[in-house]
Amino acid sequence: MKIWSTEHVFSYPWETVIKAAMRKYPNPMNPNVVGVDVLDRNLDTDGRLHSHRLLSTEWGLPGIVRAILGTGHTRTYVKEHSIVDPEEKKMELYSTNITLTNLVSVDERLVYRPHPDNPEVTVLTQEAIITVKGVSLSSYLEGMMALRMSANARKEGPIRGLCRPHDQGLYHPTPTSPDKPPTWQPAQTNLPHGNQPRQTSHMATSPDKAPTWQPAQTNLPHGNQPSQPSLVTRLHRGHHNPPW
Amino acid sequence: MLIVLKMNSVGEDCTDLKREYDQCFNRWFAEKFLKEDRSGDPCTEMFKKYQHCVQKAIKEKNIPIDGVEFMGPNKEKPDS
């Protein structure tokens, strides 16, 4: 089992980021998501909006992965549950694969919140637990997948780091009207010390017991102001195949 | 030329219903919900039609949406 977490900062207020996050697909940075459907949506007694969605994903599985997993299926499905609290300004999103579950488990948790020191800025914390079951080299595959997710997340920004390739630059939504889909623009990475990447990714191998979700530490230095986002839109970066 | 990308539904026949509902929802979400305006949801009927189509597609494609809980403390995922 591998646990991976990271953190991103967007130079937009929470509401703007949330509106874009709800309309994240289609997304040129992740063409693997080919279908999104809402299964259920309701308001709870605290006024929070719950959405249950089904994502269809189409992977180009590398030959070696197919050989190891023993499957040629490339259409997989992910179930997603999001909770938006407009009063507390918090959006949580949980997702898990519902196909290939006898082979692999990828569970993600995302939390979007305003930055504690700057309400015009939003922090996204992502965590993922990856478990490959029942095949040899499972630990190796898990490590590979976690590394890929970490690399992807450095590129992708507001999008879940799951199998999203990426090299530099976070992508974030620009403000749009409700009728228009958001456009994706690269954000300036908040680079606090000597231009090292802000995001922290750490992986830990745990013994085979059910994981607990620990909040990632927010490592944003106090008083650091985000730099202005670039106006250049880069939509067509090369991307790698997902790790599974 | 600006190419506007649109997302599909899992059921090919449901895509138009989905897009209609999504447009209604996105507007309500941005203009009402996030501003904590609780005046009715204008998308209910649209959602019902869209849902009916999606549930049918899920059955036809045998997509295993039931019985899988999100992993968390003390949760086990059934193999499928």
UniProtKB/TrEMBL annotation, chain B:
UniProt keywords, alphabetically: Disulfide bond
Database matches in SUPFAM superfamilies: Non-heme 11 kDa protein of cytochrome bc1 complex (Ubiquinol-cytochrome c reductase) (SSF81531)
Gene3D superfamilies registered for this protein in UniProt: Ubiquinol-cytochrome C reductase hinge domain
GO molecular function, one term: phosphatidic acid transfer activity
GO cellular component terms, A-Z: cytosol; mitochondrial intermembrane space; nucleus
InterPro entries per record: MDM35_apoptosis, Ubol_cytC_Rdtase_hinge_dom_sf
Name of the protein in its database record: TP53-regulated inhibitor of apoptosis 1
Species assigned in the record: Oncorhynchus kisutch (Coho salmon)
